[in-house]
Amino acid sequence: MSFDITQWIVKIPVLLFAITIHEYAHGRAAFHFGNPTAKQMGRLSFNPLIHIDPLGAICLFLFNFGWAKPVPVDVRYFKNTRKDVILMSLAGPMANICAAFMAGMLIRFFVLPMEVYLRALLWLILMNLGLGLFNLLPLPPLDGSHVLENILPREAAIKFRKWGRYGPLVLIGIIMLDNFAHTGIVGRILVGPMFSLAHLFAGDNLFALLPLLRQ
Asked: What is the distance between the alpha carbons of residues 32 and 203, in angstroms, rounded to a whole number?
């Protein structure tokens, strides 16, 4: 896949949009459950610059899988800690999947003969699904790890939390192996579901747009 100027012009705004709605959804959910921390720290915002994790953004831009800077959370504000953490953690990925669904509807029903428009829709569906599904993996510090931790029995959750300090290193190692040693770990786990959902949302029109990835 080449990185011509058109790809950059389209992908950067889509990347910023995907990250922003993901983190805003986390912050809004936390606020809904009584946690004002994100709002107090200025994270309950649509300003993409305050949500970007540089490494996560680079991974999302290059590989369509990545992460954003975690929203600060103080669980002491939650009335039902486990349930509220799970719902707050799911809010970000669900926001991305909803955005991908809307992009899919446009691809399915409103295909226009405008290359920039079509590229934007294609990256919207793929980047949002990539960000959403990747963050559902139960690997710290991704959102799925918080869901798993709060589903596990308390003793198992404590052990999982202790192991979680090594999660970022494991995560980076998997991504590096996947892309430079061609192990295909992330691909086997996520690419199939990502394109299955993209096809479900967008229909067969998706296949007509995929060649744009190689241009």
From this structure: 35
- Tell me how far apart the alpha carbons of residues 47 and 21 are, in angstroms, rounded to a whole number: 10
Residue 4 pLDDT: 65
Mean pLDDT of 146-167: 88
DSSP state letter for 142: S
- How many CA atoms does the CB half-sphere of 115 hold within 13 Å? 7
Residue 152 confidence (pLDDT): 94
CB-CB contact of 90 with 105 (8 Å): no
For residue 69 the two structure tokens come to 């800077």
Determine contact, residues 135/26, Cβ cutoff 8 Å. Answer: no
User: How far is residue 102's CA from residue 63's CA, in Å, rounded to a whole number?
Assistant: 22
Q: What is the distance between the alpha carbons of residues 184 and 84, in angstroms, rounded to a whole number? A: 34
C-alpha dihedral, 21 to 24 to 26 to 32, nearest 10° = -130
Residues taking part in catalysis? 23
* pLDDT, tens digit (0-9, with 9 covering 90-100), for 66-76: 677 888 888 89
For the stretch 54-62, contacts whose Cβ atoms lie closer than 8 Å and that sit 24 or more positions apart, written own/partner, are: 55/172, 56/19, 57/15, 57/19, 59/175, 60/15, 60/18, 60/19, 60/127, 60/130, 60/131, 61/11, 61/12, 61/15, 62/179
How far apart, in whole angstroms, are the C-alpha atoms of residue 77 and residue 43? 17
N residues, the chain: 215
- Residue pair 162/155 in contact by the 8 Å Cβ criterion: no
